[in-house]
Amino acid sequence: MTAEAKPRGSASTPLTERQEARRRRILHASAQLAARGGFDAVQMREVAESSGVALGTLYRYFPSKIHLLVATMQDQLQGMHLTLRKRPPAGAGAAERVAETLMRAFRALQREPHLADAMVRALTFADRSVSPEVDTVSRQTTAIILDAMGLDRPTPEQLSAVRVIEHTWHSALITWLSGRASIAQVKIDIETVCRLIDLTASAAPRQPPER
Amino acid sequence: MTAEAKPRGSASTPLTERQEARRRRILHASAQLAARGGFDAVQMREVAESSGVALGTLYRYFPSKIHLLVATMQDQLQGMHLTLRKRPPAGAGAAERVAETLMRAFRALQREPHLADAMVRALTFADRSVSPEVDTVSRQTTAIILDAMGLDRPTPEQLSAVRVIEHTWHSALITWLSGRASIAQVKIDIETVCRLIDLTASAAPRQPPER
DNA sequence: CGCTAATCTAGAACAAGTTTCAGCCTCGTC
DNA sequence: GACGAGGCTGAAACTTGTTCTAGATTAGCG
């Protein structure tokens, strides 16, 4: 019942330097193990040992394996967002640009399919106790897509389209990771769903369809 | 290395009557436990005891908890498909009919949210070893949607749209189950993605756009 | 520097999914 | 009706996520 200050979340306690370093080591170990063997290879004891931290400490930083992997995803997504921003997509329409961006992200994931597996499986398996963290990931993804669309003040309709695109993105990734869809198929699905953007664009009077 | 004939899958061994009964008892116990407490409440020992079967036998019928829950979903989906067929959707366009059908299915799931949780979580968490079973579920879902569209010979484009709808359906369910989206939001997402159907309809020369 | 509370460590312990095994039972066959 | 193969049972064992505890360390503070 004491007002404990766990090193969780965002602004609970500022985290000392050593704590920040520990957290970073843990995330690094997690990503490394995940890259090697996917979700199953990320074993809490191994993560602890591999990052030079006691099991109890690992659990203090990340209250479950799912929390850990979702945090790993936040970490990776952040890097990806920065990378993507460096070379913005070149397509003419918003739909093309979003599709191009997502395909670029997809190719990045293909380079580490096991890591992708671990992160995506954790994300979709997460229950209510991880909602805040999953929500953060979702917001990051939304930001990436809106970036690609070149919007900063989207209409509700456009937000709906973006949500649907995210749904498709996650689910398509899963079907690919579990070997039920080919890379080509994922590409098609992404391109298909991105057409929704044009649909809402015509309804949104922001960018007049001067053609 | 012996050519064992496990009571798995479709056509391995015809399954005797008692075996069929066992299988049914197991699925029933699974659904019941799931309906009570969701994914976590489906504990293999409990399923075994509750269906009057030894743990080893349970594992002979369903090689993992995920297999069991995916099979449970197949079972439930089949029932749902029959129910839905009885009263076909009444909307004018294919998009409306699909949206209506999915919303009807969604309301059915809302009646047993814990069961929905267990099934959907299992479905998205399934790895490659469950691919055939997950694929069956996917085909069942596709059949339901095509039914609602009133198609029996869809174009590749329409199949893409259906796949995207399925993606959205699964992912939207997950966000709802984990409390990150409201029922209203799921409705909007479904309606949004269903607009894709109209998009492909105009491109498909089957139903001439006689206005 | 010395104190106190919080944090960290090592390790045991627990929970639930999964595997294994010895022995009994059932089914199809002769 | 006896036989043999495979299926079923009961129980123990193993794995990995998670929790708990006692003692050592560390951080912040007077």
Automatic annotation (TrEMBL), chains A, B:
Keywords: DNA-binding
TM stretches of this protein: none
Domain (HTH tetR-type) ranges: 20-80
PROSITE patterns assigned: HTH_TETR_2
DNA-binding among keywords: yes
Annotated InterPro entries: Homeodomain-like_sf (IPR009057), HTH-type_TetR-like_transc_reg (IPR050109), HTH_TetR (IPR001647), KstR_C (IPR041642)
One Pfam family from the record: TetR_N
Keyword Nucleotide-binding among UniProt keywords: no
DNA-binding region: 43-62
Disordered, as annotated region: 1-21
Protein name (record): TetR family transcriptional regulator
Lineage of producing organism: Bacteria, Bacillati, Actinomycetota, Actinomycetes, Kitasatosporales
